[in-house]
């Protein structure tokens, strides 16, 4: 009976930590968006919108651009690339090696859980239009 309990706890632990980074960090992150002057309309390539200052929950996976617009100012577009977060990659890859390495790494890779958007926060200064 003791062996059964030990094996059950071990298997439960493995299942619970599958895709460590995905479980802990998630497949999306909050991005803070600011502009000077504030009150600019922001539209992400994902379709999400807000007025600055604002925070949007953005998937870690895929390319995203932000388009800023405000009456009396020139529109501005900036990229928010997703790249590997060194600290997350090192820490969670080590944990994944302990618990079902191949499955965890596949889950984390597909969710891009070891990735972060940069810059975060996103800040732009809009230029007054000359018209």
Describe the structure.
With 131 residues, this protein is of the alpha+beta class. The protein has one domain (2-125). Helix content is 34%, strand content 31%. The chain has helices spanning 2-16, 20-25, 86-98, 101-111; strands at residues 28-36, 41-44, 49-51, 54-59, 65-69, 76-79, 82-84, 115-117, 122-125. The strands form 3 sheets. The protein has a 4-stranded antiparallel sheet, with no helix packed on it. Strands 4-1-9 form a 3-stranded mixed sheet, with no helix packed on it. The relative contact order is 0.24. Residues 14-19 have low confidence and may be disordered.
Give the structure's gist in a few sentences.
By secondary structure, the chain is α+β, with helices and mostly antiparallel strands. Helix content is 34%, strand content 31%.
Kindly list the characteristics that best describe this protein.
131 residues; alpha+beta; four-stranded antiparallel beta sheet; three-stranded mixed beta sheet; 4 helices; 9 strands; elongated
Tell me the overall shape: elongated
The total beta strand count reads: 9
What is the radius of gyration computed over CA atoms, rounded to a whole number of angstroms?
Answer: 20 Å
Side-by-side strand order of the widest sheet: 3-2-5-6
Number of domains: 1
Distance from N terminus to C terminus (CA atoms, Å) equals 81 Å
Q: Whole-number average pLDDT?
A: 76
Low-confidence stretches: 14-19
Sketch the major β-sheet: 4 strands, antiparallel
| % residues in beta strands | 25-35%
> Helix count, per DSSP?
4
Helix content: 25-40%
Order of helices and strands: HHEEEEEEEHHEE
Global structural class = alpha+beta
